[in-house]
Amino acid sequence: MQKVDDIKPCYPLFRQDEYKESLANKKAKFEEGHAADKVQEIFNWTTTMEYRELNFQREALTVNPAKACQPLGAVLCALGFEKTLPYVHGSQGCVAYFRTYFNRHFREPVSCVSDSMTEDAAVFGGQKNMIDGLENAKAMYKPEMIAVSTTCMAEVIGDDLNAFITNTKKAGGVPMDYPTPYAHTPSFVGSHVTGWDNMFEGIMRYFTLNTMDDKEVGKNGKINIVPGFESYLGNYRVIHRMLDEMGVEHTMLSDPTEVLDTPADGEFRMYAGGTKLDEVKDAPNAKNTFLLQPMQLEKTKKYVETTWKHEVPKMVIPMGLESTDEFLMKVSEVTGKE
Ligand code: SF4
After folding, report:
1. Of 156, 174, 248, 316, which residue is the catalytic one?
2. Active site residue 156
């Protein structure tokens, strides 16, 4: 704590026990990081001849792989749900970047709003922006769900999404029962894939955490497919096709194939396709949940295993013949279909 007669600058301040504890808690609870001994073990391995030889055997190498920020992943995740408007609490420039990035890749307009925090909000907090922003976004674009994520600015000043959204509802900006899942997506931790994971977990938590009493694993006879940050729409389609041909009933949890590939017939569609909210509510009743990019979905895995009680199958990304075979064999094992 700062005392008025003894204000410390950041360096000595962050060395106080209180801050050390707070940073350690943040790391343990929110960063999904590996234990210090595991990090040290991997570091030691990278200094061995075995590692050097493996490196020399590489035929393809990416130095500084493309890495975007967390809310970009959160926006892609939100776009995959029916009539959902991604809403970013923070600066407008960040959202312009996300939209441009997706426009260029998908060649589609990408609907996403921000509450345009500026200098005053950076000093006094962005609650006012959130109250106006949620109300305006709902009134103007008429989504059935608004999925809220954050930019660096809101995270640096420590804006509390749960409190802000609750206060917006209390102020009458949006109805109390209006779906507003959220995820804190600070870009100084992780990358776009972490943001996707955080937003997905936020949406699942919103719709299923308090409604687990009547849920039963396997009740709906389906399997859940969680794609993770997947920007090639053909991959979603081929997975649907393969599972349909096997007769496997499934729910793709976050499916942006329609909204990011609307027909060029002159009509703008702000919302198209996407996973239905009823399917999200029914997801815990599935036989199992397949995480297609398991390394990137740690938070989701933890939630699905502890809250839905699904035994998430161990697998690698179904990329290439061998891994795709492995994925389909796992599906066959779980469902009994061939
Ligand atoms: S890294 Fe932070 S400031 Fe930069 S675009 Fe992403 S959210 Fe915005």
Report:
1. 156
2. yes
